[in-house]
């Protein structure tokens, strides 16, 4: 496996190198190791930081194999927009690398580990669609231009704003690199999410749980249309019970409880007062006014880590091990549509 394949794992040649190596993906993920760890890093950094870059240099084999592992992981994470974010991050990393490689090619310093423009164009079947004009610019066939620019924002990408000459659109080298980044993004996104066989999903369940936790921690849902009592996390259930029993909750616990309930659009101060059995509706109204912004969107209440620190994380169940925020718990319960079943088993 060549270093070039590891740097550009989406290339046809890289895919062929993986096939030729006859790697057993089930055994690879069951054994774990650098390829799996790097696969987790690819997805985690893509979803949280927008880059698939590695923080350390790995061997070519582990780096290359981490790509199919990452594709499996992002499919299993199954978070909204995850595959698109992942594909964008891989494409951005590729663009950074091939831009540097093309620069070396222009300065005639390229070596065996660099990718030439002609190699990249050939891999994407674009050799006949892109022609250098000799002044550092390129003519791109209009059909290829339209396909590759369709996901780009900015008026200047629209065909009506471009010069169209003899079925081609002139572009600068920077613009061509952006169009090629789009080609990479399309290829990375192609086929995602994958249908992952059970043995692979089982072997990666711990890594997927950690990734889901990281994603939920970074961006818990902020609002819900409907309030379903059966889907409440155990900590919130417990806080409601304590409030209804007449306990004067400590400020942090009350803030956590009202903050959580503020995420439900259908609940106003009167409803929250009734749900919790509070006897001070004006205080609830005041708290709610500070917890929701002008558009009614709630600020996120405390995460599980904070709830634990204050001793409000109680009666954890199995789902608690997979999430990092009480709002994520509620989202997962209602998404899975298993509120009744889970509530029943929790009551057993
Ligand atoms: S883990 Fe989170 S959701 Fe579960 S009980 Fe603790 S704070 Fe609540």
Label the structural class.
Answer: mainly alpha
The CATH class of the largest domain is identified as: Mainly Alpha
Question: Per CATH, which architecture of the largest domain?
Answer: Up-down Bundle
The stretches of 5 or more residues where confidence is low (pLDDT under 50) are: 340-348
Strand content: under 5%
Determine the fraction of residues in helical runs and give it as a percent range.
Answer: 55-70%
The termini sit apart by 54 Å
What does this structure look like?
The chain is built from 18 helices and three strands. The protein has two domains: 210 residues, Transcription Elongation Factor S-II, Chain A (Up-down Bundle), CATH 1.20.930; 119 residues, no CATH class. Helix 4 crosses helix 6, helix 5 crosses helix 11 and helix 14 packs across helix 15. It has a three-stranded antiparallel beta sheet with strand order 1-2-3. The longest helix is centred in the first third of the chain and has 25 residues. The C terminus is likely disordered. 57% of the residues lie in helices and 3% in strands. The N and C termini lie far apart (54 Å). With 348 residues, it is mostly helical. The protein is elongated, with a radius of gyration of 26 Å.
Q: What descriptors fit this protein?
A:
elongated, binds iron/sulfur cluster, Transcription Elongation Factor S-II, Chain A, 348 residues, mainly alpha, single chain, three-stranded antiparallel β-sheet, 57% helix, 18 helices
């Amino acid at each position: 496996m060549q270093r070039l394949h590891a740097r550009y794992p989406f290339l046809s040649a890289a895919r062929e190198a993986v096939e030729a190596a006859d790697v057993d993906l089930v055994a690879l993920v069951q054994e774990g190791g650098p390829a799996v760890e790097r696969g987790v890093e690819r997805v985690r950094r893509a979803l949280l930081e927008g880059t698939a870059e590695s923080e350390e240099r790995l061997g070519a084999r582990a780096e290359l194999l981490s790509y199919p592992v990452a594709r499996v992981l992002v499919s299993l994470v199954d978070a909204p927009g995850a595959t698109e974010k992942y594909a964008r991050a891989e494409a951005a990393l590729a663009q950074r690398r091939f831009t540097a490689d093309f620069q070396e090619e222009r300065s005639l310093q390229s070596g065996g580990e660099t990718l030439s423009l002609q190699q990249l164009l050939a891999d994407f079947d674009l050799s006949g669609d892109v022609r250098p004009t000799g002044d550092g610019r390129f003519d791109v066939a209009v059909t290829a231009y339209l396909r590759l620019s369709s996901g780009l924002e900015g008026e200047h990408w629209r065909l009506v704003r471009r010069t169209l000459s003899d079925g081609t659109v002139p572009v600068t080298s920077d613009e061509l690199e952006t169009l090629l980044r789009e080609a990479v993004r399309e290829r990375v996104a192609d086929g995602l999410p994958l249908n992952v066989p059970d043995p692979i999903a089982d072997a990666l369940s711990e890594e997927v749980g950690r990734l889901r936790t990281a994603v939920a921690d970074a961006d818990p849902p902020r609002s819900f249309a409907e309030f379903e009592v059966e889907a409440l996390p155990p900590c919130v259930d417990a806080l409601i019970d304590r409030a209804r029993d007449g306990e004067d909750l400590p400020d942090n616990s009350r803030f956590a409880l009202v903050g959580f309930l503020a995420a439900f659009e259908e609940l106003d101060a009167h409803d929250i007062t009734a749900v919790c059995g509070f006897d001070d509706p004006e205080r609830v109204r005041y708290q709610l006014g500070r917890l929701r912004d002008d558009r009614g969107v709630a600020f996120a209440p405390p995460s599980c880590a904070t709830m634990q620190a204050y001793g409000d994380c109680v009666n954890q169940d199995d789902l608690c091990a997979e999430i990092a925020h009480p709002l994520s718990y509620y989202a997962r319960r209602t998404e899975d549509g298993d509120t009744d079943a889970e509530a029943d088993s929790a009551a057993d």
